[in-house]
Design goal:
The chain is built from 15 helices and 15 strands. It has 443 residues and is of the alpha+beta class. Strands 1, 4, 5, 6 and 7 form a five-stranded mixed β-sheet that branches. A three-stranded antiparallel β-sheet has the order 3-2-15. The chain is elongated.
């Protein structure tokens, strides 16, 4: 090796030539876009998990323009199950920024990359090193572990002082030549040999002068994050299902857990379900069934979910139909087919490509994603409230309560009815996806 290589770099490059991984999907045609997507997916996620998601993602979004122009729901739908959904939202936002401000090409400068949503210094360095061979150090979790052990760096790597030390070491060891090979090599070493538990030191090219190996203290480095008590939270999912099998889903706020994903409406576990359904949605449950609880873990807290299946009837004046026919509204519009689809036979106005068809009264019949929304006669509501249908749309119960037809329950934006087949194609929170699959199996 020439003077262009540090002692560590030379050994890692030789080791990688014999033992490194060279057939991962993102290593084929390593364009900046393909490397970027892989680096985002690989954050806190193992390679074996990422491969399938990456290949499906690239099939749907083969280039940056396809990603930037796609609806966020399509992106989140392909991300469902991968976790840390802010990564997908930032990926989509950054693609739009590159399209609008950089002419559709990933910027070549480190600072310009770091300015994009969701890209930090290490990710930017990896994009430039792996796709262009530019000399930039990286410091992902695997590299931090290798450097902490090799140099005996104590302390938690997330602490500012420790992180600055590691960046200095990463810069020192990055060679001036074969930067892409070195970058992949040090990441591979941390992922395959210098693993967190039971590292394979005897096979490591850095074993001879590794501080942790010399001390017999591999488990000591890197130091773990200071322990904190994990909070425990509870919630109940209201799984409203109409006679056709459609489920009511609500899009979550863009920030927070499951940000931007579709979820079942929530309430307190000990809430009066009938009262919540009547006050929030204007419907009365026909039956309610408590399903098995789901335990879900987040980085900073644990969540117990109590799903409640709520069967609701459509009493908006629909009349009975023959076998296999859609139930028809008194105006002649079909309310629900036996397959759960939404079809309207009269008064429906034509719409342009990708637009929802509208009933003559103004109600949105169906979106292109299979969901249905209704805006007919809807009155404005305060933030976070449902827009309510005009007077007369709600039936009055014997107890004086007003039971709105199901067509008036779904808000035009953040609350929609989804037939199970359509729901599977949008971005769903992981427990919601599991519950929908369970319902499909049980029907």
């Amino acid at each position: 090796m020439s003077d262009a290589f540090t002692p560590i770099a030379g050994r890692l490059i030789r080791w990688y030539a014999r033992h490194g991984r060279k057939n991962l999907p993102w290593q084929r045609d390593p364009t900046p876009y393909r490397v970027w997507v892989s680096e985002i997916m690989l954050q806190q996620t193992q390679v074996s998990v990422v491969i399938g998601y990456y290949e499906r993602f690239m099939t749907r979004f083969p280039d940056l323009a396809a990603l930037a122009d796609a609806p966020l729901d399509d992106v989140l739908g392909l991300w469902t199950g991968l976790g840390y959904y802010s990564r997908a939202r930032n990926l989509h936002r950054a693609a739009a920024v590159v399209r609008d401000r950089h002419g559709g090409a990933m910027p070549r400068g480190l600072d310009a990359l770091v300015a994009l949503p969701g890209i930090g210094r290490s990710t930017a360095g990896a994009i430039l090193a792996l796709s262009h061979g530019d000399r930039h150090p990286i410091l992902d979790g695997n590299v931090k572990r290798v450097l902490c052990r090799y140099h005996g760096v104590g302390g938690w790597p997330g602490e500012g002082r420790v992180e600055r030390t590691l960046w200095t070491l990463a810069e020192r060891h990055t060679p001036r030549e074969q930067v892409a090979v070195y970058t992949q090599a040090i990441m591979d070493l941390g992922a395959t040999l210098c693993v967190r538990l039971r590292p394979l030191c005897a096979m490591c090219p850095l074993e001879a002068d590794c501080a942790a190996r010399r001390e017999g203290a591999q488990a000591k480095y890197p130091a773990p994050r200071p322990r904190r008590e994990t909070p425990h939270r509870e919630t109940a999912f209201l799984m409203l299902r109409d006679p056709g099998g459609a489920l009511l889903l609500e899009r979550r706020p863009p920030v927070g857990i499951w940000g931007g994903l579709w979820c079942f409406p929530e309430c307190e576990p000990d809430a009066d379900v009938e009262a919540v359904c009547r006050s929030r949605f204007g419907v009365r449950p026909a039956t309610t069934t408590a399903l098995a609880p789901i335990a879900h873990g987040f980085t900073h807290f644990k969540l117990d979910v109590y799903p409640i299946l709520v069967e609701v009837d459509d009493d908006d004046g629909s009349t009975a139909a023959g076998p296999g026919e859609p139930r028809r509204h008194s105006s002649g519009a079909a309310v629900a087919g036996s397959d759960g689809s939404r079809r309207y036979s009269s008064g429906a106005a034509a719409a342009g490509p990708g637009e929802p068809r509208r009933h003559s009264s103004g109600a949105v019949v169906a979106d292109s994603d299979g969901s249905r929304r209704y805006s007919s006669g809807a009155a404005a509501a305060g933030p976070g409230e449902l827009r309510r249908s005009s007077p007369g749309a709600a039936a009055t119960g014997s107890d004086g309560s007003r039971n709105r037809p199901l067509s008036a329950v779904a808000d035009s934006g953040e609350l929609r009815w989804y037939p199970p087949g359509a729901a599977a194609s949008v971005g769903l929170a992981a427990p919601v996806k599991r519950l929908i699959e369970q319902l499909a199996r049980d029907r």
